[in-house]
Each structure stands twice: as structure tokens, then as C-alpha cells.
Amino acid sequence: MYPSYTRRGDHVIKKEMIAMLLAGGQGSRLGVLTSKVAKPAVAFGGKYRIIDFPLSNCINSGIDTVGVLTQYQPLQLNSHIGIGVPWDLDRNIGGVSVLPPYEKSKGTDWYTGTANAIFQNIDYIDSFNPEYVLILSGDHIYKMDYEVMLDYHKSNNADLTIAVMPVPIEEASRFGVVITDDNGRIAEFEEKPPKPRSNLASMGIYIFTWKVLREALIATGDVPNCDFGKHVIPYIHERKQPIYAYEFNGYWKDVGTLGSYWEANMELIDIIPVFNLYEEFWKIYTKTESLQPQYVSGEAKIERTIIGDGSEIYGEVYNSVIGSGVTIEPGAVVRDSIIMQNAVIGAGTQLNKAIVAENVRVGAGAQIGVGEYAESQLDKKVYAFDLVTIGANSVIPEGVTIGKNVAISGVTTAEDYPDGALPSGGYIIKAGDK
After folding, report:
1. Bridge partners of 208?
2. What are phi and psi of 253, to 5 degrees?
3. pLDDT at residue 3 in the model
4. pTM for this predicted structure
5. How wide is the angle at C-alpha 148 spanned by C-alphas 147 and 154, nearest 5°?
6. Helix/strand/coil (H, E, C) string of the chain?
């Protein structure tokens, strides 16, 4: 049995629902973008980081207690979250708590699966004695009112409610897929079926009645790589406990590949954006630095572009997302690209369809993203798009020519480019940057 209440000083803590945000994944399909940073901490939209979206959803939905489970490369993520001030989550009771794996009397255990991470934090959840627990992923872009989903969960007397959305049937095998009856109760759940019989895909957003989840975690949590889709949900379903599907029809993007990440950023600059960052009633909050205003020189040209605070634009920028503190030097032309914080694009450089991570330095006169597409020599599954991907803190020397579908990470010099070029499909990963 879990405690009926918890005392902290003179306070009796009883939260109706708390959120547990899974933010420990590497995001290996983002290649060099996540070689030194957790996927939820990757910059997005010129100003934000991916984790800002579920955190903002929580505070906009009235949820004031969030546990963030970190593991892989957590330094930047921890610094970004801090004590939760930007999201109004700096609370004496509740607020945001960063929950990395920790040493126990029997030793130290890494989180080995989504459900195992929650299992290792049962005591944290118990301390708030919640009626319900909301499980979230830290790597999706969307806006959702979790309070509406909770009302749906209550109205059905559900033990578990899974947020789902319709996807093209040819893509359904990448998700957990549900089959429901006429009342929305889930009759069958299949995790990534090779031949899906439904196009209702799980979004990885769950509301559990806590006592039900607690029992399921104790029964399954020590299973190797314990996962919600493979272990916890089947455990509850086998006991014929009520599981319902909450259908969501808004914008939701899994930015787990370089292609989907680039596409989601580009959708922000449409004349009528599919995903609107500027809605007053549902703000997206983030940690912001005190920066000077943007500067655009008289010679600069800018079309359909988001530009972050403190950026200086002397060249030309088209159809791009530019982060804060970026410098585009005179004569440089940037097209269809994402440039993250504090990067410098050298004078006269031509940059086409690239993702340039934070603190990158590109030398003058480089030609980047040119030529014909070629298959990646590094990883065909990760680098399967005609994008140039440059990892954080990298340096590109002046005057080099770089093709399409390439990956670069580290401080490179002219000697790394035979005949001054890196052909399409090629890569340069310096020692220590793998």
C-alpha cells in the first residue's frame, strides 16, 4: 500500500496528478546533433529547446509538479531546466525535480527502459501521494491540454488512458498501435506491429491511476529493459483493467530523425504556420538570456526567416531558422537552413539546406550543401536526407567545398579535406566527437 498522505513540515502533500517526463534518451537518429547533448536539450525554433514544449504544456494545463528523468549527457539539460523558473515550476512543494539514476544500497542502476526509469522513482511519486500520474516524453513538439485528457480518463473510470492520433497506415508500424471499441476502450494493443491492423498510434503520453501503475511497476519493473509498450501496458491489459484511447487531432511531431527535425523547423516559417509559436493563450516558455537586440545591416537581405535575439545579419538569409547570438557575415548566403545559438557563418560562404549546431565556426568562402545527393558512408539509417549536419563546437576551414548528406563533428582543418572538398555522403568525425 502507498501512504495515504505525506507530511513535509506542517504540510500534508496530496497532488491530484503529477507528471513524469522521460528525458534520458540519446536520440541517436539525430546523429552528431546529439553526440554531446541529450535529445530533449537540442535547440528548436531559434529560441527554444525541445523539452520546453512538454514542460510548457504542463504549466499551461495546471500541473505544478514534474519529475524530469535524465541520463544521457544531462549537463546542458540540467542547466537549462535549473529550478524551473521559466515555467513557473520553482515551487516549495512540487515544482520541477531533475531525477538522474542514483546510488542505492544494492548498487547503482542505470535506467534501462522507460518503465524501469519510473520504477526506480516510485518513492518520489509516493511522496506526493497522487491520484494520477502523467507519463510524458521529452522529445516531441506539440501543444496539449493534459487537463482535458484527465477529465476523459475520469469520465471513463479508466485505469490507463493512452493519447493516440491517426497516422498513415504505412507509417503505423513505427508506433504502438491500438484497436478500440465504439466507446474508445482499447480492445487490443500491439507494439510496433509489422502489419498494423489500425492507424491509431500511441503518442507515448499516458495517464495512469497511480495505484494501478504502482502495482504494474512492482510486478514488471525489474524486467530487463522494462518498457511501457512492451511490458506495463500488456500487464494491465491482460488483467482486463479498463484502458481507453484519447484521440488527439492537433499538431504533434516526433523530431527523432534529421529529416523530421529539419521539417518541423521549416514549418515554423510558413506564411500560415502549421504550428504556431505565437498564440497568446498557450505560450511556450523557455530559459532566456539577457541579449542585445538583433542587428540587420543595410546590405542584408532576409526572407521568411526566424531570427533570434542578439544575432547580427550582414549577408543574405532565406527560408531559415536562426538562433540567438548568430553572426552571418557580409556576402554569406544561407538558404533552407537551421543555425543554432552563437554560430558564425563566414563572409562569402554559401550554405544550403544545413543544420548547424551551437558554437560552430564556418570559415569564409566555404561552399556547403552543393552537388548531387549520395548515400551516407557513415550511417545510412541516420543520414538519409540531403542535409549537411554539423555538430556543436565544430570548425569548418575557409574555402572548402562540402557536398550533400554529410556529417561533420569537431575542429576540422584544411588537411581534413582532400583537394579542398568533402564529397556528398562523406563525413569527418574527429577523435573524441564520436
Report:
1. 133, 160
2. -135, 125
3. 38
4. 0.90
5. 85
6. CCCCCEEECCEEECCCEEEEEECCCCCHHHHHHHCCCCHHHCEECCCEECCHHHHHHHHHCCCCEEEEECCCCCHHHHHHHCCCHHHCCCCCCCEEEECCCCEECCEECCCCCHHHHHHCCHHHHHCCCCCEEEEEECCEEECCCHHHHHHHHHHCCCCEEEEEEECCHHHHHHCEEEEECCCCEEEEEEECCCCCCCCEEEEEEEEEEHHHHHHHHHHHCCCCCCCHHHHHHHHHHHCCCCEEEEECCCCEEECCCHHHHHHHHHHCCCCCCCCCCCCCCCCCCCCCCCCCCCEECCCCEEECCEECCCCEECCEEECCEECCCCEECCCCEEECCEECCCCEECCCCEEECEEECCCCEECCCCEECCCCCCCCCCCCCCCCCCCEEECCCCEECCCCEECCCEEEECECCHHHCHHHEECCCCEEECCCCC
pLDDT averages per 10-residue partition of the chain, 434 residues: 43 82 82 89 91 93 91 74 70 76 64 88 94 94 96 97 92 88 91 89 95 95 86 92 94 90 93 81 81 91 95 97 97 98 97 97 98 95 95 96 97 96 96 61
Place of cell 503505423: 172
* β-pair partners for 43: 49
Burial of 4 (0-12, 13-18, 19+ CB in 10 A): exposed
Confidence at residue 283, expressed as pLDDT on a 0 to 100 scale? 87
Cα–Cα distance, 356 to 363 (Å, whole number)? 13
**Residue 51's Cα: distance from chain center in Å?**
6
pLDDT of residue 222: 81
Which cell goes with 422? 568533402
- Output the pLDDT for position 292: 86
pLDDT of residue 78: 72
Residues 6+ apart with CB under 8 A from 415: none
Instruction: Report yes or no: 48 and 140 within 8 Å, Cβ to Cβ.
Output: no
Q: Do 24 and 71 meet the contact criterion of CB atoms below 8 Å apart? A: yes
Q: Which amino acid is at 303?
A: E
